[in-house]
From TrEMBL:
SUPFAM superfamilies: Nucleotide-diphospho-sugar transferases (SSF53448). This is Hexosyltransferase. InterPro entries: GNT1/Glycosyltrans_8, Nucleotide-diphossugar_trans. It comes from Pyrodinium bahamense. Gene3D superfamilies: Spore Coat Polysaccharide Biosynthesis Protein SpsA, Chain A (3.90.550.10). It comes from the Eukaryota. PANTHER family: GLYCOGENIN SUBFAMILY MEMBER.
Amino acid sequence: VAGAVLLSGSGRLPALEAVTQLLNRWGGGPRSGLLDGAIGIIAVHRSPTSAGAGKRFAWVTMAYDAPGAEPRHLWQSLAMARCLQRLSSFPLVLLTNSSRLPDGTPLATAVQRLHVQLMPLYEVPIPHAMAEAHMPLHWKVAFWKLQIWRLEQFDKLVWVDSDAILFRSMDWLCSGIMLIEPSEATFKRLRLFAADGNASEHWWTNGDQKLIRNYFRIVVGEPAKTLPLTDASFGKCLGHTPNIKYDSPGPWNVPAFVHKSSTGNECFYFNVSKQMARVNGELVNICNYHPLGPYWRDMFCQAMEIVGGGKHTIDTTRVFCDDTYWYRAGKAHRGLW
């Protein structure tokens, strides 16, 4: 079984030069994987001996919405889809329980315009005692991401959380440097490991993130490694990450991959009412001031247009994509909030 590498938002991160030297010493890359339980990236790789002549690379994410509920997770995933359409050579695989847009349009047809491949999302059962005693609902759903190890039709996959944004290309993750092998056997071993609370060091205390990290550390024996903060970081760390060396003043340090705009993730979501706040007595949209707030909005609204010209929108998304409401809501529409 191939290993994995855990990316963590905490701890001491190596400098980019040190990472480059390390990868050079690996000489083509180990059988390891790139995983971010905290920041939201996993790279999944089929070993060279099992891969065919035509490499099948893709990104993968998940969007689950309860039947009959507003498709908020599906909508949220569209911003990342649009980013990848612009910045990557590879498609996005979207695992979802949705099959149609609100007006009845087949979802697979609509998202093809974003270079998205639709696949069914299946429930991955959690050991009953652990699920009932320890895990909130959103962690139970997050556990389902283990099924990406079953997508053996791909040679390499990179998992990205849907509540994140991509600012620069990261296709180098598919270069064969830091990867794991997707296999049914690994999927089954992960589930067996999850059922052993003592061996897994009570993984449910930090959800699927801790489970995957501990599996590859304890069972496979692969140590955790990290990406530099110039490549991946939390939104709450923006402005505190290392700068690139450039002879000009300014914050030259926006990571390529940013998970959540902030602790509350107000700006990587499409509800304007959650973004309104009073600052010095003035009602403003705080995401106008976030360095990636307008960028996430542009990606989301472009994606909504691409999948159907805005005809599938609900009131929340329609208001969010209206420039007047979003940029001037605090001044021109005080009564709305």
